[in-house]
Amino acid sequence: MERSKTIQENIRQVLLHDWDPIGVQDAPEAQDEYDGYVGGVYRLLTSGASEKQVIDHLWHIETDAMGLSGLDPGKLAPVARKLRALGVGL
Predict the structure, then answer these.
(1) Is the sign of the CA dihedral 28, 33, 21, 10 positive or negative?
(2) pLDDT over 70 for what percent of the chain?
(3) Does some domain include residue 71?
(4) Measured distance CA(31)–CA(53) in Å, rounded
(5) pTM score of the predicted model
(6) How far is 45 from 15, CA to CA, in rounded Å?
(7) What average pLDDT score do residues 18-37 get?
(8) What torsion, rounded to 10 degrees, do the Cα atoms 56, 89, 39, 53 define?
(9) Which entry of 6, 11, 62, 70 is 20 to 30 Å from 23 by CA?
(10) pLDDT at position 90
(11) What's the total number of domains in the chain?
(12) Distance from CA of residue 65 to its chain's centroid?
């Protein structure tokens, strides 16, 4: 259970500091802005998702959930690699 919490906190930090599509990482009142996406990313990573699957997931959050447009999914590759490097797989 403790490992799960640590991994989820690591995912949270990557989403906030490396992904941050709406630019809130420096706003103290918005440090929990992406917390709602941690569980989905965690489940995706534990399933052994590929880099492309992680990119697609983040891109869909940006475009569907957040309503952002004109984003280049290729720019998500470094974030996807960093998330996959957390070693979340079961």
Answers:
(1) positive
(2) 96
(3) yes
(4) 25
(5) 0.91
(6) 14
(7) 95
(8) 10
(9) 6
(10) 57
(11) 1
(12) 13
What is the pLDDT at residue 87?
Answer: 86
Domain-embedded: residue 10: yes
The mean pLDDT of 31-58, rounded to a whole number, is 96
Mean pLDDT over each residue of the chain, to the nearest integer: 93
pLDDT recorded at residue 45: 96
Whether residue 89 lies inside any domain: the answer is no
Write the CA distances from 60 to 6, 46, 57, 71, integer angstroms: 25, 19, 5, 10
Look at the block and give the residue holding tokens 């952002």: 68
* Domain span holding position 9: 2-84
Per-residue model confidence (pLDDT) at position 30 = 94
Assign residue 20 a region: left if phi > 0, alpha if psi is -120 to 50, beta otherwise? Answer: left
CA atoms within 13 A on the CB side of 49: 23
| Residue position matching structure tokens 């891109």 | 59
